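Give me structure tokens for this 266-residue protein.
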Amino acid sequence: MKRPAVYVGNNRVLLWTKNNYKMFVDSRDVSIAPHLILEGVYEEHTDAVLRRLVSPGMHVVEIGANVGLFTLLMCHRVGPNGSVYAFECDPVLAQIARDNLELNGFSRIGTIDERAVSKESGTLTFRATTRHRGGGTLIAGLQQIPELTESERETISVRSTSLDGFLANYDRKIDFLKIDAEGAETDIIAGGRRIFGDPSYRVTVMMEFAPAFMREAGMDPAQQLDDLRARGFTFSRIDDRRRALAPTNAAALLAAPFSDIVMVRA
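Here you go.
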């Protein structure tokens, strides 16, 4: 039986997810929140694949946590012997994600870091949104949601780190890396030489691959795939309908407007 969602004030709705997590979402959001409020689920294909890839005892890093939907799932999957370190630079979403971890008893497993991840540490301009909470980006002019207008965006200054800078003070080896960064993927990879540049570093990476977004960010998506393949990664894509991994190749990924991909260095 579906349990009701409740408006609790301060632009927040409290709900139950299909996975039986308690969650706050932003009531102003028209991208992710309506799905969770009405159906208790969002991106079931991602959920299903994460359940297969993330296992007890793993150490996970997530870049782009939003309100923490998949953060909760991964905390549950890794259990008390694992960890999930999640970055979310939108301060409103970061606080909601932090509260969601606490609400579900995952504060000792999961951490929310309120920084952006890019190619270097410093300060960056982040373009936050209020109506399309999944559309915040570091990339100026990126138009990934047709209904999202520039007048909706609010530019804020955020602290940033590179993956290399983060790992310099992180005492765990990352088993799984999830990236949902709205066009900033290439800069994240460029700042993660310790993970992406070392062929001996065994890691599984899930990320969005949108050729048009990369071009708008001034990057060549074909070159990005070539570089990753040269560094020892093999690719699969997430089949939305089957909710499972499917074979793919560079030509297919470049021809599709958008793909969720999983990269493995065995």
